[in-house]
Write a structure and sequence with these properties.
28% helix, 2 domains, 2 helices, alpha+beta, 15-stranded antiparallel beta sheet
Length: 317
């Protein structure tokens, strides 16, 4: 057998090296192709999810706009008919754009919760139109979703007119909005008066004890907004107005000493099983308290379904 020369040995090494290099290049190409394919698939999935989310956001924006623009001077049935018509248009438009990407979009029937809106929309004294009563109920056994008042500072009782102890505000005819739960005995009374030319708010419980600190604010153009559901006075947070949770799910709302409050107010309530005393509010109407629908987005690679719910205001408790 002939001996392998140094030259032959060198050629073998070169050939082996070339073979190894070709193998490494092939492996690298395969790995790069796999990574590219995976990235492309991931990007496609992300795009499809983004398209579904965009469709959901469009439908939600449409639902919110339709509910907020519903004319509450109409009957509840007419309001929901208007919203339904708007949602049909939104489904057609959003469905058209989804189809451009090879997908389909459907919007389910909208379900509604009816509420009552009790308000004084024009500036005036808060006394009831019903025989000029100064203390009267607005809601019995209901749930308040919105309660705001824009009160005139000069119409309120002044601090100097209030007899000590200040906890006896009812006896001093200080305007108040009182929430009460007859079953549990829990009560929250919101008193509003004028102290040092500022609109001042105090909240008391069923025992006559003040909750939290006194809240006050300067009156802009002679008025200050007291938003019970948002827990603010003239836009500033008032911790005492955030103490209503113990009332439970249903309760009563009564206005007292209304001869000492001018301005405007709005109360929106769910009175299913309860009563809204429309006769005491100058302006009253049915309103959409909540609206809910489902959307279904389908593409060859994705099935997406979700529920969309809109409530114009959260319950106070």
């Amino acid at each position: 057998m002939a001996a392998v020369s140094d030259r032959d040995r060198g050629q073998l090494i070169i050939v082996g090296g070339l073979a190894l290099a070709v193998t490494l290049v092939a492996v690298a190409l395969v790995l790069n192709a796999a990574i590219y394919t995976e990235n492309l698939a991931s990007r496609d999935d992300a795009d499809r999810i983004d398209d579904a989310n965009a469709a959901r956001n469009d439908v939600r924006a449409g639902l919110v706009g339709a509910v907020e623009h519903a004319d509450d001077s109409q009957s509840f049935a007419d309001q929901t008919d208007d919203v339904n018509a708007s949602m049909d248009e939104i489904e057609n438009e959003s469905g058209y754009y989804a189809a451009q990407g090879g997908a389909s979009l459907s919007v389910g029937n909208v379900s509604y919760e009816e509420g009552r809106r009790l308000a004084r929309d024009s500036e005036g004294q808060f006394v009831s139109p019903d025989a000029g009563q100064t203390t009267y109920p607005l809601v019995d056994d209901g749930t308040v979703h919105e309660h705001s008042m824009n009160v005139s500072k000069d119409s309120l009782r002044e601090r100097g007119e209030i007899t000590d102890p200040i906890s006896d505000l009812t006896g001093d005819d200080v305007f108040n909005a009182t929430y009460s739960n007859a079953s549990s005995g829990v009560e929250r009374s919101v008193f509003v008066y004028n102290e040092s030319n500022e609109v001042t708010v105090e909240v008391y419980d069923e025992n006559g004890d003040r909750i939290g600190s006194v809240c006050n604010a300067s009156a802009t153009d002679g008025h200050a907004a007291v938003d019970v559901t948002e827990g603010t006075v003239a836009g500033d947070s008032c911790a005492a107005l955030e103490s209503f949770d113990p009332l439970g799910s249903t309760y009563d709302l009564e206005y007292g000493s209304t001869a000492n409050a001018d301005g405007t107010y709005e109360v929106t309530a769910n009175v299913t099983g309860g009563t809204a005393h429309d006769q005491h509010a100058p302006d009253s109407s049915a309103t959409i308290l909540a609206a809910e629908t489902t959307i279904t987005y389908r593409s060859p690679e994705l099935y997406y379904e979700t529920t969309i719910r809109y409530e114009p205001g959260d319950a106070i408790a």
